[in-house]
C-alpha cells in the first residue's frame, strides 16, 4: 500500500516528466520524418515566384504504433516557395499539413498579413509582414517559413512535410512528419 507521501511523490515525478516531455516536443528542432509510399510531385512552373502556394494531396499509411495502425490515409497539404527564384534547392520550399493541430480544422493560407484580424495581431505581439497560415475556427496562426505557431490555442506548430528533391520540372515532397501518422 502506498502512503500519502509516496502517492504525492510519484504524482509529482509524473507531472515533472510530462512537463519535460511536452517542453522537449515544443522546442525540439529535430523532427522525425517518415517516407511517403510515393512522392507528391508539384510542377515547378507553378512555383516560380516567392510566396507561391500550391495545394497537394499525399497518400500515406498510419504507423504500426498508431491508434488505428497501418491504415491508408490522405493528407491535404500546401507547398510554398519561401526563397527567391533562381536555383532551386529543396530548402527554398516548405510544405505543411493543412489540418490545425488544435481541433483538426482546415487552415487557410493568408498571403497578406494586413488581412489578419486585429485581435490576432495583438496576440502575436509583433508586426507580421509576410504570409501566414490561419485556422478560421480559433485563430491559431502559423508561420509560412516553418509552420511554427505564432498565436492561438494550437498546442504546437503545423505538421510538416519534407521537400526531398527539386528537378528542372518539379518539386517532390517525399516525407511527412512521423507524429502526423500517429495522431490521424
Q: Which residues form runs of ≥5 with pLDDT under 50?
A: none
Shape: globular
Going across the major beta sheet, what is the strand order?
Answer: 1-10-9-4-3-2
Q: How large is the radius of gyration?
A: 19 Å
Number of domains: 2
Average pLDDT score: 87
The helix-and-strand class reads: alpha+beta
Helix content: 10-25%
User: Count of helices?
Assistant: 2
> What series of H and E elements makes up the topology?
HEEEEEHEEEEE
Strand content: 25-35%
| Topology-level CATH name of the largest domain | Rieske Iron-sulfur Protein
CATH architecture of the largest domain: 3-layer Sandwich
Structure notes:
This protein has two helices and ten strands, in the order H-E-E-E-E-E-H-E-E-E-E-E. Helix content is 17%, strand content 34%. The chain has two domains: 1-30; 33-181, Rieske [2Fe-2S] iron-sulphur domain (Rieske Iron-sulfur Protein), CATH 2.102.10.10. It is globular. The protein starts with a helix and ends in a 7-residue tail after the last strand. Strand 7 and strand 8 (149-151) form a beta hairpin. The longest helix is centred in the N-terminal third of the chain and has 24 residues, at 4-27. The strands form two sheets. A six-stranded antiparallel β-sheet has the order 1-10-9-4-3-2, with no helix packed on it. The chain has helices at residues 4-27, 118-124, and strands spanning 33-43, 53-61, 72-81, 93-97, 108-110, 132-134, 141-143, 149-151, 160-166, 170-177. It has 184 residues and is an alpha+beta fold.
